[in-house]
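Attaching the record inline, Q. Sequence:
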Amino acid sequence: MHKNADMDALGSAYYLSKIFGGSKIASDGMDRFASYLSKKYNIEVLSDFDPSAYTEIIAVDTASREQLGKFRDVRLDAIYDHHASNDIIAERRIVMDNYPSCSEMLYDLYGRVEDNIAHLLLAGGIISDTDWFRHANTRTFLVFFRILEDAKMEFSDISSIFGFPYNHSEKIAILKGMQRMKFRTKGSKIICATEVGAHESSFAMLMSNLVDVVFVGSQRKDVVRVTSRSKELNLLDILGEVATDFDCSYGGHKNAAGMQCTGDVEAILNALVKLAEKKL
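Structure, as predicted:
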């Protein structure tokens, strides 16, 4: 899975582990949802592994090698992904960018497995990556219904897994982000940007309910990571343009995307806000 793996990545990886059998899951860190669910359902996620010990290594829900973090140089035999920006080279490439989530794509490919936790996580991945169906299409609802029907689950079984509070660390990161936040208005539209030490996605998710465009950056030495959300702008266009001026890799979807750069977080956030303001 990609670094800071989310629910879509965890659901996809766990589901494929049941499809292929005898598999292990690995990631260079997980976000709050994925971490919580992996512990709740006793899903082992390796933080390191020896590539020579495995006959096949598969990447899921990952658009570039840079997103794999410390595993970026590991041999990849296959890739399952749904990002239009995917540039990973592998012997087997299953990349379908017309799916809003990797979870939806995989269930459409393989269908039911004998493990309801896999179905639960896939359904959660669909909700997460479509932002509660705001970026869904007709097929998304059909696949989601099939998952519920095949697993004999109700919608409440899925939605309940999102009902856990922010932990203390996330609360502090969000409050510090609010203290540092800058915003601009363009007509009735609001663009905001801030820097946090951690939990970028938690802050971005929270602010996406209040503003039209949000950029959340963090800096560790000379490495800058940015998470972004937008209601109407194509973030891949914005991140792609800024990436030409900085040493960046980027990926994601038009309404939810991220980038990793070498440089100064303030300069990169300012460039992103300026370009978003221009496009609005």
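The domain at 7-162 is CATH 3.90.1640.10 (inorganic pyrophosphatase (n-terminal core)). The first strand starts at residue 25 and ends at 26.

More tomorrow.
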